[in-house]
User: Fold these one by one.
Assistant:
Number 1:
Amino acid sequence: MEPYAPVPFYDRYVPRAPPLAAAEAFREVMRKRRSVRDFSNRDVPLEVIASLVATAGGAPSGANRQPWRFVCVRDPTVKRRIRLAAEEEERAFYAGRAGERWLADLAPLGTDADKAFLEIAPWLVVVFRLAAGDEGEAVYYTQESVGIAVGMFLCAAQHAGLATLTHTPAPMKFLATLLSRPENERPFLLIPVGWAADACTVPRAALRKKPLDEIMVVV
């Protein structure tokens, strides 16, 4: 690694509006984000996906190790294989792997083992967490670091007007096998990305978010 040599912070972001107005404008963009399962097959250019990944790659990480890999899949054959493998795991999940309480909590969302969106969405972005660097170097705070990067990816997609879903078929090891990823990469999340279908519906139950006084404590 290069020695620590700090430089002046010359490239600061300065919003065009005062802080509160800028924060509220961004919140309004994110307020309209929903988890989408009804995708259009309309294409999304590779350049757009690359921009989203580049934004995610700017996330902070432990010791700047950047322990993530974003595998972006648009090949129909590979997407088909991912869907079949994911649905196999999901059938086992709904048939008994999940407890009754878990299934009851999922019921208002209307989810089931059918994951057709994995073929319809133009892109599947599979996020991997690095358990070690590509040359075997140590990595730190990988869960936290990759989680932050994924959050930035989702925000960037929403800002671009795209729909996303955070999909977690479990176990997810099949993703590493299907995508021929090395041993140091562990599946973290599967994100379909595209345009919401014209007739897209979303669960009414998911509209309610906890009010600010339930999630914020001022000391």
Number 2:
Amino acid sequence: MGATLNVQAQTADEIINNYLTALGGKEKLNTIKTLYMEGVTVMQNGNEINAKVYRDQDKLLRRDIDFGMGSSVTIVTDKEGWFSNPRNGGAFQAIPADRLKTQQTDLDIRGGLVDYAAKGSTVELLGKEKVGDVDAYKIKLTPKTGNEVIYYFDPKTWYVIRETRKGGMPGGGGAGRPGQGQPQGDGTVNIDYSNYQKTADGYLFPMTVSFGNGGSMNYEKIEVNKPIDEKLYKPKN
């Protein structure tokens, strides 16, 4: 039994290493300090939702959403968190402690798969599963927080093409890559990643992120290691 688990762990590590290499290598990923992302979602009725996402490694995840007829903001830091939306008049409220703890896992820009063991996480290979027409490898990551994430890898490119987790996300996914989603009926959220492209400085990101609810975000701008205004780390009513 122990030998079987060891073989699975080694195989999982090989897949993860292939994935990290496909993204430019662990060393390059570890040079990511900040991210700025702009994306657009076109709804079935033709309305557009515009998103701006600011991320600072281990310090900030901020998502500003413009619905056209209203807006919402979510701010998650290593110590506190706030949210606002049209239903509460746009006033900021503190994120409850239990939700904040879950959302703080996404402060890791580089993603949970980078140096996962050093972070206290474990991985398990779950075999293969079809994602569309891709026979994808399926790996479960269990962080020390216990919030499991399942990643699906395309064996031809080694990119993550799907991510599944419970409870929804504040704005980051794909092993720390762009993404957001809403929980399905069983509390899980599925996010599919496609259209991987390199930035001018050689960082690779999925530019299209599709959610289980039928929506998709198309990222039009991604900037790496640009300064973030200190005012964005705090709510402003």
Number 3:
Amino acid sequence: MKISKSLLTLAAACVLTTSLYSCKAKKAVVKPPPVATVPAKAPEPAPVEEKKEEPVAAPAPKPDFDFSNVQFEFNSSVLKTASYPILDNVALEMKKDPAAKFVINGHSSAEGTPEHNLSLSVDRANSVKSYLVNAGLPDSNFAIKGFGEKVPVAPNDTESGRQLNRRVEIKKN
């Protein structure tokens, strides 16, 4: 059997190719040394928040309306500047219960005639009412009473007592 030169060249090329690849040094696969592993901890569960029972809110008590520290100068129905913060607080409390009705009681000291003191006490009550209406409260929520000198809270024989008697008191009706 005669082998052709081209077939022989082809066979030689295959052998040569195969031997070249098979003779190549193989690189050793180096595995890294095993790392000591700590068994994975299961994630800790999130802390459970204890549900605190919220107290059942009782209805808010209606504000107690008993304001009696509104003072006036002698023989005057003009509010003292010191009464403004008091009346501002009164207005805030009254706005919490817009349907509430009030009586504004005016008083005076015993100086002057009973008729004049009665008229002055009504004027003082009206002065307070005007302040509260200007603060945004309905005019219809107020009734006015004047007592003159008849209901003192202190003796009228000293100036400090008379000053305390020149007042307006606001009561819930």
Number 4:
Amino acid sequence: MSKLGSKAEHWDHVAREWTLKGYSNELLAEHKKKTYLSLITRWADVANARNILKTDLFQEASGRDQFLFDLGQVNSNVIGIDVSHEIVGRAKSRANAYGVDASKYLCCDVRHLPFRDNSISLIISDSTLDHFPSDSDIVIALKELGRALRPGGILILTLDNSSNPTYPPYIIFRLWMRLGLSPYFIGRTLSLKKLTQNLEEIGFDVADCTAIFHYPHPDGLVRGLERSLRKLSRGRLDNAIRKALALLDKLEGKRTRYLTGRYIAVKAVKRQAEPC
């Protein structure tokens, strides 16, 4: 079986199990959606982008933290991709329920995009590339995104933040996956310095960077805490949890943000072609 086929089957299985096991955390999902929408609107002009590409559809298939449908209500020329047929199908069904056009949701690998060179205006890659088994896979995907993005186009990308002190050594992730403690494959990531270097070598200028979601790894602990608090308080602590998450967001403005953020985030602009 090819690596692509194996990867697609893995995410098909994850999508089915995710729905069955009910991993949804309403308040964390609400917070995640707001954070991403805030970051995107801060770094890009969504309404006037000629077209927008999102590099996976997992949240749109099964999560309350989806934000692509919201972007689709502002700009109808939205493309979504995912390696899993199961995820693409579920995302299309949910998009239709939201009244959003999902005709451009496609099944493909981000390392092999079915788009012409210089054809996409805005790319949003939200913790997609940190599900690959090697750094080289991440770089291949970055190069492919750079190929498809038009000169002057914007890439907004997030990856797991390995500078957070709670981010475990990768051998721990391997153990979690072997013991079945992770519901999906946890891949490699790049440090902010290495990500910036790779983007610049590919032909991007990094215009801005930050760290988002200021809570510790693994997020299973945070998910469990939210579920427990909501169950014990029967919803009476919901507003307090929202305020706590909003308060943690203020850490983004601190010099220590790369120690507290769960993800690094970059805004990279593709350079204009050099004149002949």
